[in-house]
């Protein structure tokens, strides 16, 4: 029988080589390192290559090869272009995500406050506001980004993703500072409403983020900016500045209440500036101020009295004591029913509740802080008033914290009650109630301020001391507010 003709494998046929026809694969393919396709079915021409491996190159165009310096400059410019595009895209995405987060997670928490009446400061971030983002400096838009990231960090009960969020937060915080410095370097920016709004927004972001030693510096800078622009009355006449000035005044006044008497910001104020503050707050027509203007004015007068008592002024102690007694009498004789009668009938009960809370808290602050600087005596009469205010305030706060309409307006009052029950003779279950309420408020508001207040009070409770200045031996500022309405300001 004649031998059958030799068959060539498909690879040898493709390469026009003589195949040795060994089965199942030829030896020639094995020696050349090629996978032999065999003899039966013709394989496809597609061939898998390892990642990064190529079998052919395009012909390079003929011409003069650019120098290494030119190539380096070209690569550097391309890199800068790519980075700038990436940064712009990142900021734009961050602003959009911040708006979505605010509308989904923060705005719903603020909506119950409308139960007190119309509030111009409670509104979602609409597409119309988003379109204005390109027209304002980065320090305004990125402050909103910082606020939302900080809110998310404090809302997370576990540590998952908190590290990544914190890194992102501090990166945007640096961008805000850079934008503020650029605004300060501009002649027009130094006196613009936008700059004032940027500093206020950054102050709130700092307080929300954690314990900041710079909050007093921001307030001093705002005070100097007001003086450069002609004073408080002139600045308040500018469109959209009232919410910003109100936030500034809250920071100054409430910050002084929780600072040592020897280190109050109001000590650097002139007499005419204090009068301007009182007039501005009394003339404020915003329907959402939960503290009556008359009682807020008494807080300012108490701060002034504490500062004078801690200084070396020539006023005698008897004069200061008379002023302190008059302040306390005015607080206790305040007619909250008359003030609440001006509010809508549907929300009058909530207004009465908040007004009585402020009245009791301010009366306690008057007694405790002025006794700490030896202005008011520690008598049986004072102790009776303090015990009555403490019992009533504790009852009212428990009621207010159960309502979403009023629970965000009682942070300062909780702190005042915490100082009163910190005395070793008055310690008890109220301390646990205050601590739990502050921790829950910090989680709900998404701010460190209530948590910082809880830490300060806990340290005071364990110290065994009992005076107001023993609790606040360094300046503190506790604000639950995390943002301010900047929608009405004029863009220079």
From TrEMBL:
<dbReference type="GO" id="GO:0045944">
    <property type="term" value="P:positive regulation of transcription by RNA polymerase II"/>
</dbReference>
<dbReference type="GO" id="GO:0008270">
    <property type="term" value="F:zinc ion binding"/>
</dbReference>
<keyword id="KW-0238">DNA-binding</keyword>
<dbReference type="InterPro" id="IPR021858">
    <property type="entry name" value="Fun_TF"/>
</dbReference>
<feature type="region of interest" description="Disordered">
    <location>
        <begin position="52"/>
        <end position="76"/>
    </location>
</feature>
<dbReference type="GO" id="GO:0000981">
    <property type="term" value="F:DNA-binding transcription factor activity, RNA polymerase II-specific"/>
</dbReference>
<dbReference type="GO" id="GO:0005634">
    <property type="term" value="C:nucleus"/>
</dbReference>
<dbReference type="GO" id="GO:0000976">
    <property type="term" value="F:transcription cis-regulatory region binding"/>
</dbReference>
<keyword id="KW-0805">Transcription regulation</keyword>
<dbReference type="InterPro" id="IPR001138">
    <property type="entry name" value="Zn2Cys6_DnaBD"/>
</dbReference>
<keyword id="KW-0539">Nucleus</keyword>
<keyword id="KW-0862">Zinc</keyword>
<dbReference type="Pfam" id="PF11951">
    <property type="entry name" value="Fungal_trans_2"/>
</dbReference>
<protein>
    <submittedName>
        <fullName>C6 zinc finger domain-protein</fullName>
    </submittedName>
</protein>
<keyword id="KW-0804">Transcription</keyword>
């Amino acid at each position: 029988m004649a031998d059958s003709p030799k068959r060539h494998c498909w690879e040898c046929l493709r390469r026009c080589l003589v195949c040795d026809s060994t089965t199942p694969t030829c030896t020639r393919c094995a020696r050349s390192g090629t996978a032999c396709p065999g003899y039966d079915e013709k394989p496809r021409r597609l061939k898998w290559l390892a990642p990064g491996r190529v079998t052919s190159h395009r012909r390079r165009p003929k011409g003069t090869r650019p120098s290494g310096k030119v190539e380096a400059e070209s690569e550097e410019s391309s890199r800068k272009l790519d980075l700038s595009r990436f940064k712009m895209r990142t900021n734009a995405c961050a602003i959009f995500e911040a708006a979505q987060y605010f509308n989904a997670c923060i705005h719903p928490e603020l909506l119950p406050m409308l139960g007190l009446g119309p509030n111009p400061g409670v509104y979602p971030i609409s597409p119309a506001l988003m379109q204005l983002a390109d027209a304002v400096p980065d320090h305004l838009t990125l402050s909103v980004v910082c606020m939302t990231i900080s809110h998310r960090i404090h809302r997370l009960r576990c540590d998952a993703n908190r590290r990544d969020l914190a890194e992102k937060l501090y990166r945007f915080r640096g961008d805000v500072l850079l934008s503020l410095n650029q605004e300060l370097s501009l002649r027009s920016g130094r006196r613009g409403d936008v700059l004032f709004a940027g500093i206020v927004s950054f102050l709130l972001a700092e307080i929300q983020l954690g314990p900041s030693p710079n909050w007093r510096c921001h307030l001093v800078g705002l005070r100097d900016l007001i003086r450069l622009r002609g004073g408080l009355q002139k600045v308040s006449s500018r469109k959209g500045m009232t919410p910003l000035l109100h936030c500034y005044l809250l920071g100054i006044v409430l910050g002084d209440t929780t600072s040592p008497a020897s280190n109050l910001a109001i000590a650097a104020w002139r007499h005419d500036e204090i009068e301007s503050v009182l007039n501005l707050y009394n003339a404020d027509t915003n329907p959402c101020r939960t503290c009556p203007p008359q009682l807020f004015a008494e807080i300012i007068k108490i701060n002034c009295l504490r500062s004078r008592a801690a200084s070396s002024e020539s006023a005698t102690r008897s004069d200061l004591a008379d002023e302190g007694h008059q302040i306390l009498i005015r607080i206790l004789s305040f007619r909250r029913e008359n003030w609440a009668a001006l509010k809508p009938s549907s929300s009058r009960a909530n207004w009465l509740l908040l007004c009585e809370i402020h009245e009791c808290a301010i009366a306690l602050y008057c007694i405790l802080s002025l006794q700490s600087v030896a202005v008011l005596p520690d008598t049986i009469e004072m102790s009776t008033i303090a015990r009555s205010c403490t019992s009533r305030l504790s009852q009212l706060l428990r009621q207010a914290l159960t309502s979403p309409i009023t629970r965000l307006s009682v942070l300062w009052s909780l702190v005042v009650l915490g100082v009163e029950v910190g005395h070793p003779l008055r310690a008890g279950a109220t301390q646990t109630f205050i601590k739990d309420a502050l921790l829950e408020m910090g989680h709900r508001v998404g701010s460190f301020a209530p948590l910082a207040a809880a830490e300060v009070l806990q340290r005071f409770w364990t110290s065994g001391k009992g005076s107001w200045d023993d609790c606040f031996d360094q300046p503190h500022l506790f604000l639950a507010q995390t943002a301010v309405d900047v929608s009405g300001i004029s863009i220079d």
